[in-house]
DNA sequence: TTGTACGCGTTATCAT
DNA sequence: ATGATAACGCGTACAA
């Protein structure tokens, strides 16, 4: 690919003049500008952003480190980030870590060597992550997404996971449920998982109901109903579960139907994230909606405007759905919802 | 951030030696290598990939241009591409076009200026795309994903959309359906939409059944049941629909249930893509599964190994599901599947 | 094995 | 308004 010097020669000007045609066109006389543009068009010249970045010491690429793209929450967020970044003239270098710290470290190292202008990242555990101090040492501007740093005060954009899960659990309690379990994917050591379980416990303790241990699934994207089935039997059967993401909840709804367990009559199922598809199902999925697009938008915004960095907590929203109802077989005074 | 010269000084070697410690370590004596590494660690030095790229004229970043990330087919493909690329030491610059040619052009221009080493892209219509000749002129290696160029012979990896849709339609015909409609998102002018409709027509004509016009929805991610409801009435009601992607199908399943239309008894619904979540639903979604991960893997592979470029057609797979069954109210000789 | 010196394509400074 | 030139950080022929 041709360079500025070649363009300059063809246009009969100096390289500096040719350069100005792209970096500061209004500095040139209209006719010389046109000469340069004609020459560059003829040669198929395109400014080399790599050379520009080396010279100006300023990149127009942001890095993005996400755990996965299989959860629509992340892909929606990514799409929003890409739009916002592109509108500001930035591109996005994207990588996924699958929550593995080694991968997180390798990716961050790659981003640093690429000299990205900033990094939006979601790590397993913000308070025990090796990469955040690394980023700070390297003076690379970054914004945590979803993570909620408790100890350190890293810039972050998130929802109040604890309150969100508390409210969701309260909603189930209000419906009359007392045997409510929380279903989670792997990575219980993640900061969000901890906060959500705390929120779950908050609500139950407030209702003087003992919390149950987390039911941990092997996958983030699909639950295993066999883990749940035994708990639906016995003297105190589970009447409601709340999942830490919607994919788990949706797969449970399907499995329950296949197992002959009626949702919501026999088992109420609630999700977390509020992905779009949940609203399309029958029964529709009750969930805690996170503003994933907004979250992405804000993350990029915080990189673009350094002054705006800090902790930004976005509002979540309880989304009702037909996947939850009052428990059957249990007469709630004034609310007789028994089905059998 | 410090540079090689600083490292060299601290290590007591020349800048070239320091450089070799990173570009070609085995050229150095073990003790000098160690000296350099110690110095660079002390300074927090990281090789500048931008400078390296300018010098070597070789990038380790691939560009990726996708229509959207809201369809799991694309996000799964992207995740697979990222893994494969990273294993080879490459990063991914990701952008989405929403099928808009202007956005496609702007993104390609951006990628060219960034001097990416190659580009994986999905365009609206490969045979009428302005960007592909641009890429060829610029001599940027690229691979089309999903697109099926008919006229030109661009490198591409895809499934046989026409055959896939023909087989899916045939399956519905075999079940006894005669009133089968195809439901599509916007962008009917896309190459894949055309091919899939052709496949649909192929199957119907082979069965001496007149094809119906495409039912076009306003969104790629959710169908509008109101467009369908009228066609379920009358003398020749629709008994089956096949959607051009699973999200449309899933939303139709939910809407049908809410409208009191039994799936599959009154209406069989089939999808296309084979996204994972379809298998979790009740009823499970019958679909034509595309190997999205494999497709992404191959696309990167084709960029990494120029000799392997060309047209690569991946196998699709008919996935059965509980969302389709023999039509009710219609006696198929030897197959009396009536429910009423 | 290590050092010297040039150039990758651009922008910024200074001069004209 | 335009031109000459240095510098961004690095890889690599070539020399030692």
TrEMBL record, chains A, B:
Domain HTH lacI-type, first and last residues per copy: 1-56
Gene Ontology molecular function, alphabetical: DNA-binding transcription factor activity; transcription cis-regulatory region binding
Cross-referenced InterPro entries: HTH_LacI (IPR000843), Lambda_DNA-bd_dom_sf (IPR010982), Peripla_BP/Lac1_sug-bd_dom (IPR001761), Peripla_BP_I (IPR028082)
SMART domains, per database record: HTH_LACI
SUPFAM superfamilies with a match to the protein in the record: lambda repressor-like DNA-binding domains, Periplasmic binding protein-like I
Matches recorded under CDD domains: HTH_LacI
Entry keyword set: DNA-binding, Transcription, Transcription regulation
Signal peptide limits: none
Pfam family, one: LacI
PANTHER family assigned: LACI-RELATED TRANSCRIPTIONAL REPRESSOR, TRANSCRIPTIONAL REGULATORY PROTEIN
UniProt protein name: LacI family DNA-binding transcriptional regulator
Source organism per UniProt: Candidatus Pantoea soli
